[in-house]
Structures are given as structure tokens and as C-alpha cells.
């Protein structure tokens, strides 16, 4: 009899405790346990994550069979523009790239423009250059190794490298204000004091 009485008392205590907890939560007195959200996957690193860091070294052959090496441009401001002939925003950006590449005043101040082709074959790139009368240097990244080093996930991607060899500014895509923003970044890099 005694064990039945104890079981009844235990059930009664548990029931009253449960009612008390339910009433407290229903009134908003205590907060229910929070569940930690699943952390979001890390964003895919892109070229913008390289800003402020030393530009990755590379060496590529151009369409006209000259070798370009980033190390050879030390002390100059380098503008890299990653592009392909099939890319509409790239095609929209190239008249502006041509303007910068052929600007004698910018060249005298130390600007170097390399327009790195994204894994296309030489005949395709050469035909496009001739049809559009572009004269800028086109290093051919046939295997995509330089694009990988610069974490290029979309084109056009424009990279401004300062005289100190660090990446100063990155532009992904080309829109209505892009030309002005790129011009400003180039001028700022050219006008920046050179560390001794």
C-alpha cells in the first residue's frame, strides 16, 4: 500500500511541476531553450579577398609572343583585366581598357595594362582583337593558372596593383560607373607615395 501511495505522490508532484512549467512558458515568463543555428558555409573566396596583399607572381606569353612577368613591372602600377571574347560585360569594358592602355600620359606615369585572356585559343582571341582594332597586350592564360592564383570567379575582373606590388583595388563586372571607378583607382595608385 505504501509503494502505491508513494507512486501516486510522485505522479502528482510531476504533474504539478509540469503544469507549473507549462503555465510559466505560456505567460512568457521563461524563454524556451534556443537552438543554435547551423553556421552558414563560408563564402567562396574571390579576388576581393586579395586586396592589401602582395599580388601573386606570374609569367605568361602574349598573343604577339612576348613574355610578361609581374616581377618585371616592379615599381609600376599594373592593371590586370581578366576577360574572354564570349563575355558581353567584358566586351563592353574593352573600349575603356583600350583607352587606358593607349593613354601616353598614364604610361609615362608608370601604368602597365595587361588584358589576361581566360583560357581561349589564340586564333579566337587574335581574330577578336583584329576585328575590334584593339592594341593592348593580351597575355594568354590557356590553362587558367593565373585566374586561379587571383581567385577569379567571374569576368571581367579588373585588378589594380600598386607600385609596391600589393593589390590596391578589385572590380568584378562592368557597369555604368565602372570606368570612372577604375580611372579613380588607377590615378590613386599612380599618385600614391612610393615607400622607400
Outline the structure in words.
This protein is an alpha/beta fold and 196 residues long. The chain has a single domain (47-191), classed as Glutaredoxin. The chain is built from 6 helices and 7 strands, in the order H-E-E-E-H-H-E-H-E-H-E-E-H. The chain has a 5-stranded mixed beta sheet. Strands 1-2 form a two-stranded antiparallel ribbon. It is globular and about 40 Å long. Mean pLDDT is 86; it is low at 17-25 and 30-36.
Features:
196 residues; alpha/beta; Glutaredoxin; 5-stranded mixed beta sheet; two-stranded antiparallel sheet; 6 helices
What is the CATH topology descriptor?
A: Glutaredoxin
Number of domains as seen in the coordinates: 1
CATH homologous superfamily caption: Glutaredoxin
Largest sheet: 5 strands, mixed
Shape type:
globular
> In percent terms, what proportion of residues is strand?
15-25%
Architecture in CATH? 3-Layer(aba) Sandwich
One letter per element, helices H and strands E, the order comes to HEEEHHEHEHEEH
User: Low-confidence runs (pLDDT<50, min 5 residues)?
Assistant: 17-25, 30-36
